[in-house]
Amino acid sequence: MNSFLTKNIIYPLHERLMQRPTFAYVEELERSQWFSREAVEQLQMQKLKVLLQLAAAHCPWHAARIEAAGLDLGEHAPFPTLEDLQRLPSMTKHDAIKNGDDLVWHDVPGGAFKYNTGGSSGQPLIFYFGRWRQASDAAGRIRARRWWGVDVGDREVYLWGAPVELNKTDRIKQLRDRLMNQLVLNAFEMSPRNMDEYIEAIRAYRPKCIYGYASSIALLAAHARERGMGLRLPALKVVCTTGEPLYDHQRELIQEVFGVPVANEFGSRDIGFTAHEVPDGQMLLMSESIILEVLDQDGCPVAPGEVGEAVMTGLCSQAQPFIRYRTGDMVRQTDEACKAGRGLHVIGEVMGRTTDFIVREDGTIMHALAVIYVLRAVEGVEEFKLIQHAVDRIEIQVVTNPRWTPSSAAEIEHGIQARLGDNVRVELRLLDAIPIEASGKYRYVVSHVALEGSLETAASGAKK
To answer: How far is Cα 344 from Cα 36, in angstroms, rounded to an integer?
Structure first.
């Protein structure tokens, strides 16, 4: 599609039809990023007051907590401060799961849409988001791409997950991708033959940006280097990675093969697009949409340079407010200012979580999300851990919730076999709690099936 048509007609028309104020918000973000830090924080407090007012009016669970904290949200009351916000207890994923409809504003303008988390934390979450959250995510990414010289309508390749079978909605999405100049390649089907085809498709498409899971792009880069297949493309400006930690050796490999910088993204399904790397190497928070607190295990702010849990308030989460939400992601606190003069907050380092690849009997390498997607769709699963002992043997540990039914086990087995093959033996273990690794780390998908050669190094969190 002609990039001018996509940028100026097709994408704006699409967002208007979807009742999303994406492009109006982009214009706001382009201005507000240059505010002083003090002005950015004042904007945050203005938006926080509106969010708290909506939560108190439409979400009973939040309303009770706001009342107990004694927050004054009256029309003539001053804007809240960060200290006022911290009078509210933090909110956990378990709180969100347990309290369901008491957290949701179903009549939010534009509608509330059901969604679920990727489940990389081992604890799936069904939640709702609205048009403003969608617009915030899209507008934030548009601004972040512009930091790297990529604009709406420029060609992008997505190395992303795809369903086993395409339904009507998926086919509509495929058409939309074409109209938006986005080529989507399936990160869940990384066989050597498919990776050869992906490399040829990328060459032919001539993208300005490549976007996808960090480990999947590193895997493709390692494959291209082994095969001597060049991926240095004249139009390419940046490779954007997301979904998991980006390790230094993966960054080096991707930059070597593609010949352009790598920019890491930080976000989640429940909170949304959170932060993105800029050309000078800093990770900038989307401060206009998110308040970030970095807290220790006792709920106290950590000092600059220390690591703590990212606790976030989504300022555009009107449909289901996430207020002081414990994300489970670990980040390093910093008091740095943006080197380019933006007032946005800087995140020192995103530590994230670790998952593995899964290998199918035919040698296809699948991103962990391919099986996580199966488990997160089963409402009776409270927490899970999947262990691949062999290409034909999968162990799944599950902590159930009250929605677990006798058919849930069959649903899991069918879903895993649809991904990995009918010959795979699925061993389901129902537990009261899932133990952590001996290292103390939480890993929710573990594979004991080795990848070959440099592919294992590319996928690994530790350089070989």
So the answer is: 8
At 68, list the tokens.
């107990």
Ranges of H-type helices in 180-336: 192-205, 214-227, 248-258
Q: Is residue 1 part of a domain?
A: no
Count of CB atoms situated within 10 Å of the CB of 42: 13
DSSP character for 199?
A: H
- pTM of the model as a whole: 0.82
Residue pair 239/260 in contact (Cβ under 8 Å)? The answer is yes
Q: Report the CATH number that the domain containing residue 402 is assigned in CATH.
A: 3.30.300.30
Selection from 105, 102, 97, 93 nearest residue 50 by Cα: 105
Instruction: List beta partners, residue 290.
Output: 314
Q: Are 381 and 400 in contact (CB under 8 A)?
A: yes
User: Do residues 365 and 191 lie in contact, with contact meaning Cβ atoms separated by under 8 Å?
Assistant: yes
- Give pLDDT tens digits for 436-458: 665 445 678 888 888 766 666 66
Number of structural domains in the chain:
1
Q: Burial, 231: exposed, middle or buried (Cβ in 10 Å; 0-12, 13-18, 19+)?
A: buried
